[in-house]
Specification:
504 residues, Porin, 18-stranded antiparallel beta barrel, two-stranded antiparallel ribbon, 2 helices, 23 strands, 5% helix, globular
Amino acid sequence: MKKFILLSVLGLMIMGFSVSANAVELQVFGMIDAQWFYNVNATGANAAGGFYNALPANFKWSAGVKGPQLDRKVNYFESRARFGFNAIVDKNLMGSLLLEMDANPWGTEPGGTRNAYGYWAGDRASVEVKNVYFDFGLPYIGIPVPMSFRVGLQTLALRPNLFLLTDGMAIKWTTKIDPVALELFYGKPYEGRTAVSQDDADVLGAHLNAKIGPLSAGGYAFNYNMNAYPFPAATPAYGVTLPFDANMWWFGLYADGKLGLVDINLDGIYDWGKVEARDSGPSAGAPDVKYRGWVARAKIDFPWDKFNFGVSGYYASGADTEDTSPTGLPGELTSIGTASTKVRSFAVPPASEVGAAFGESVVFYSFFGNRGDSGIANTLNYTQMCRGPVGGTWMAKAYASVKAAPWYKITLQGMYIGDTTHNGDTFGTALTNAGLRDKRDIGWEIDLINEINIYKNLKLTFAGGYMFAGKAMDQYTGNTIFGIPINDEIKNPWALMWNLTYSF
């Protein structure tokens, strides 16, 4: 009898687990890639810069010595892998996990962990948690409006080539009543001390989109209330007063779709707010730094049979070096030795990886074909605001592509890039006897891009680009002759690269 009861219980348990397992659909997705870079003055590093003087230190002169990568050939390999899992109960309930691993570069030196699975002999602790969240639809409770939620570590992407692209702990609420959709966001970039709120950073956002004929148009507003700014590397002790706080707004409008024979993409973004010093601390009494920046962008494509012809351009406001310091923090000095008070450069939120997503070129900006892992202007700062990919510059581009075969596409593009920083240059550090030199020409760039689908899930992209650097890229060497500053014209930047990606 005991055996019968035991076997019956085991049988019921097996049936229960079987039902549970069959009730969840498990989806697996991801990618593995390999890519190669060979370039001069086309850094593959994201410069954690501010609003001008934005090149990484190893691409500039310092104390009369040329930076170790300035004007030198750079040659290396990289890889990335992502593995994701969706556990789907039904259309109203799903959980997701996304893991990421990087070999950056191949042949990582001993001692590395993060980004280091390229270590020779392997066995690196390089697995990163990128996303962990769950989605659920709200059951009907008498409100005749469909609503859904996403809760957890998720990718927040809104106009990701210009404004917001980051992973963070957040709650997103979505409702849609055709043709209008509304999203509300709450995010937590920084918590600090849980018993007080004076050091928290919170994000609130709203995004409204409507389908208007062939166009999709929308607008958004985001508030970053950052009581701890820049975000600290460690939680401060109770009783410690952090030196700065910031309150920032971003407002944006956009439109995408088809007008007659052409496809259009339009964007306009304005940032508004301030960073202020606390009443106590090293910068107490320093004037507030006010932020007022903007960008406008337009892209027009004319597809015709196997061809596509297009033009694109944007203008992003730049800083005035006589009003702001390179990082835009209170208590710092401008280029003429006065207190920093304004940042007129367009700015993006802390940790927004839009620089990688911008993808407009092979040399100067990031490149879409290599995950955005290169580009002189690929600026990123994880703890405070920065110029993003476009602040302090403007660009006009023309391009043409042809689908030469079902498996092969080739694109030729050319662009001019200008500087919008005042009383100085966004990237150059050249001096005159009176101070920073101000030039407007960053340069001309021409690129050739090849995309080959070897299999449906295996794609090879290889590209080359050459940039004729203008005077706004010149660097001060740290030396003088008869009291006159000596500036250096950098070698024209160029880049060759390929990326091979298997996706599943």
